[in-house]
Design brief:
Structural class: alpha+beta
Number of helices: 13
Strand content: 25-35%
Largest sheet: 8 strands, antiparallel
Strand order of the largest sheet: 3-2-1-15-14-13-12-11
Length: 472
């Protein structure tokens, strides 16, 4: 593990292996804080990211167990204000559809990313209905986060509790999970949280400011330790029981791990691991002839994996403080190979890295290729201060552009960037994931009327309309 962490540039990790209901192995490696050289311990809290989705799925199933909703009854039955761009999806989408990513909606990550004061109600009721779909309802799998925010709001509406309270009361308390949170404080005077990191161009780790994802919490806001996650793994290996007490009936518990739709998240495959389908907050695969259930997670500066092989009664939880790394995915398969007496048949760490490195390079190349399109001697059509103003989209919110002697500056939620001219009325800016173009349009009156940004590559560029500078 130490060698793999070094090879894959992972500063710190926690690992717990559960076998036959007992914690077989639990250890921490590396550093919780690189600058202070603080060793990672099993007591440090780390984000589990989208592995939180399995908790939301369990919460929805708990309401189904009580008869307060049905997994296959349209969401509008319980939440009449639910609306999507696609009228068919609006009327027919069920909790199962939302849980398994088959509504026809792509990621739309920039709609919510780094929008600290966005509320879950606003996101689920007002914003979602303006996000463009790119495929027909139930025609395919598209992994995304906003539908899990809708599910969190649905849980709140039916139960009368916040999503956080419901998860605490119905899942964490019965399982004896006590060390967790739903938000990472920054700065963290307690020292309980591991620092989070993303490598720069040189491979040196830069510390991330933790994201505030309250609105999107049901999709990825849980922070905890592998010792606590070991209880979650044991619960699933134990048929949905906390000790001898079932938290779900057998039929509903099986629904959690039942494949709903063919899926693909990583853009490559291994012959040893055959994808089967996305279930309810879990992926289900066949690994060397054995059913494998797991779900990864990533937030800025932290990656996680929760995984288990039911017929061998073994599972693993892995948390790291490195952004977008596949250490956990590789380690889990290494553990399963050893469990199956197949140790050494494949180097999973190098296999994942060898597949991922060229993909990351290609993705980066595609993003930065925008600069190669520059056409010289093609000035913008207006003075820079005429581009300044407030631009709005009913789903994505507001963009504020300001002009000064140094040029244009963009404020989008809690994101800021300089806006640089490319050619004509095409400009560029850079956020976390690389450069994006802005295309300005002029109205019939000769004034700048709107701007478009391809925030979601699967649909047409998002159109933001400029607000009048003097509404009166």
């Amino acid at each position: 593990m130490r060698k793999a962490m070094s090879d894959m540039n992972v500063p710190g990790a926690q690992v717990a292996i559960v076998k036959e209901g007992e914690v077989l192995y639990a250890e921490a490696f590396g550093y919780a804080n690189l600058k202070q050289r603080t060793p990672m311990t099993r007591e440090h809290l780390l984000p589990i990211g989208s592995s939180s989705k399995s908790f939301t799925a369990m919460a929805v199933a708990s309401l189904a167990e009580e008869g307060k909703l049905n997994l296959d009854t349209p969401v509008r039955t319980y939440m009449p204000e639910f609306e999507l761009v696609d009228p068919v999806a609006t009327m027919q989408a069920t909790p199962r559809d939302l849980l398994s990513h088959r509504t026809g909606l792509p990621r739309h990550e920039w709609m919510w990313f780094n929008w600290d004061d966005l509320s879950r109600h606003d996101l689920a009721v007002n914003r979602i209905r303006h996000l463009q779909n790119n495929m027909p309802f139930r025609s395919g799998f598209q992994y995304q986060n906003p539908m899990y925010a809708v599910l969190g709001y649905l849980i709140e509406k039916i139960s009368g509790q916040t999503w956080d309270q419901f998860v605490e009361e119905r899942i964490m308390a019965p399982l004896g999970m006590t060390d967790y949170s739903f938000r990472i404080p920054y700065p963290d005077p307690s020292g309980r949280y591991a620092s989070l990191y993303t490598p720069n161009e040189a491979g040196d780790h830069e510390e991330n400011v933790p994201l505030v994802i309250d609105a999107m919490g049901p999709a990825g806001s849980i922070n905890t330790t592998v010792d606590e996650l070991a209880k979650w793994v044991a619960f699933h290996l134990n048929g949905g029981k906390a000790g001898d007490q079932p938290l779900l009936g057998e039929a509903l518990f099986q629904e959690l791990h039942k494949p709903v739709i063919p899926y693909q998240i990583l853009p490559f495959d291994f012959p040893e691991r055959v994808r089967i389908g996305y279930a309810l907050g879990w992926t289900v695969d066949n690994f060397r002839g054995h059913k494998l259930v797991d779900h990864g997670g990533n937030v800025s500066g932290g990656s996680a994996l929760i995984s288990f092989m039911p017929d061998k009664n073994i599972g693993i939880a892995i948390l790291t403080n490195a952004n977008s790394n596949l250490f956990g995915a590789a380690l889990a398969l290494e553990v399963y190979d050893r469990c199956l007496d197949l140790a050494g048949q494949k180097d999973w760490f190098s296999s994942y890295q060898d597949n991922m490195n060229p993909l990351l390079a290609a993705m980066k190349g595609q993003l930065y290729a925008i600069y190669d399109t520059k056409i010289e001697d093609k000035p913008h059509s207006h003075e820079l201060d005429e581009y300044a103003g407030v631009y709005t989209h009913p789903g994505y919110g507001e963009i504020v552009l300001t002009a000064s002697e140094s040029g244009l500056r963009m404020q989008y939620h809690n994101n800021e960037a300089d806006v640089k001219h490319l050619h004509d009325d095409i400009f560029t800016f850079e956020f976390f994931f690389g450069p994006l173009p802005i295309s300005f349009a002029t109205g019939m009156d000769g004034q700048i009327a709107s701007l478009s940004i391809p925030f979601e590559a699967a649909v047409e560029p998002i159109l933001f309309t400029k607000k009048p500078s003097n509404p009166n």
